[in-house]
């Protein structure tokens, strides 16, 4: 029991380290425009982004549920697999940060999780349809949709700004940059901040602590709990014996 508890503790700490490295990329992405234009001071921008990311994490758990039970099949997956996935994602985050490359921490984590699961339990351990519909298609569609939306927003902004007073325009742009950056941080919280929630829940499921299909927010599930890999045995006379594998 002590062994599996130690592994879970290591995985949870590693997940938090991944979350920290995720901030190298995504907080900078969200607040880059407000800082570069002077709309907000760097410390103020980072603090606002952190608060809104935290708020966003509590608005929904759909992303966390996908990671904890949608991408891979929990059966046959061990806690060590989750640890390997996190290490791979952390190394990628650090490498891209050092090279100054914008990168998706989400897809780094997805890739690490899928690769570790395949190496551990084979291709049957991953849910192909979920990967296509919830990872691959959004990865391709996101820059296209965002690009089109940005083009339309830019055109609309120029039209509105051309008719306004210069002083009022600058004030409006400043407020718009702060508001849009705040919304990016809030949306980021509903997505990326939940990755760690989902990966910790998945670790608890693979460790036999919570039942498969558990809600990352409260740990409840309508499915029966999976038997733990560790079970207590009793010696003669009712005294407690050491924990052993079931």
Automatic annotation (TrEMBL):
PANTHER family with a match to the protein in the record: LOW-AFFINITY INORGANIC PHOSPHATE TRANSPORTER-RELATED (PTHR11101:SF54), PHOSPHATE TRANSPORTER (PTHR11101)
Organism: Streptomyces avermitilis
One biological process term in Gene Ontology: phosphate ion transmembrane transport
Major site of localization recorded for this protein: membrane
Protein name: Phosphate transporter
Keywords, comma-separated and alphabetical: Membrane, Transmembrane, Transmembrane helix, Transport
Transmembrane regions listed in the UniProt entry: 6-24, 45-61, 81-101, 108-125, 131-153
Localization annotation: Membrane
Cellular component terms (Gene Ontology): membrane
Pfam family, one: PHO4
GO MF term set: phosphate transmembrane transporter activity
Disordered: annotated segments: 213-246
Leader sequence residues: none
Domain of life: Bacteria
Record flagged with keyword Transcription: no
Topology in the lipid bilayer: Multi-pass membrane protein
Organism ancestry: Bacteria, Bacillati, Actinomycetota, Actinomycetes, Kitasatosporales
Record's compositionally biased regions (Low complexity): 216-246
């Amino acid at each position: 029991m002590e062994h599996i508890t130690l592994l879970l503790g290591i995985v949870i700490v590693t997940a938090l380290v991944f979350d920290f490295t995720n901030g190298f990329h995504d907080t900078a992405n969200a607040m880059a425009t407000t800082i570069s234009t002077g709309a907000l001071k760097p410390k103020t921008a980072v603090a606002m982004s952190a608060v809104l990311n935290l708020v966003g994490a509590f608005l929904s758990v759909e992303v966390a549920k996908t990671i904890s039970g949608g991408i891979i099949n929990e059966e046959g997956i061990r806690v060590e697999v989750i640890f390997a996935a996190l290490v791979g994602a952390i190394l990628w985050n650090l490498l891209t940060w050092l090279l100054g490359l914008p990168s998706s921490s989400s897809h780094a984590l997805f890739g690490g999780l899928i690769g570790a699961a395949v190496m551990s339990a084979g291709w049957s351990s991953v849910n192909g349809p979920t990967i296509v519909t919830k990872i691959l298609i959004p990865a391709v569609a996101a820059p296209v949709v965002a690009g089109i939306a940005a083009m339309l927003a830019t055109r609309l902004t120029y039209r509105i700004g051309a008719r306004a007073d210069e002083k009022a325009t600058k004030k409006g742009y400043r407020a718009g940059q702060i508001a849009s950056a705040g919304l990016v941080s809030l949306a980021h919280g509903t997505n990326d901040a939940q990755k760690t929630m989902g990966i910790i829940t998945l670790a608890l499921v693979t460790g036999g602590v919570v039942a498969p299909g558990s809600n990352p927010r409260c740990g409840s599930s309508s499915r029966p709990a999976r038997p733990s890999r560790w079970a207590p045995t009793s010696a003669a006379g009712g005294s407690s014996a050491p924990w052993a594998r079931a």
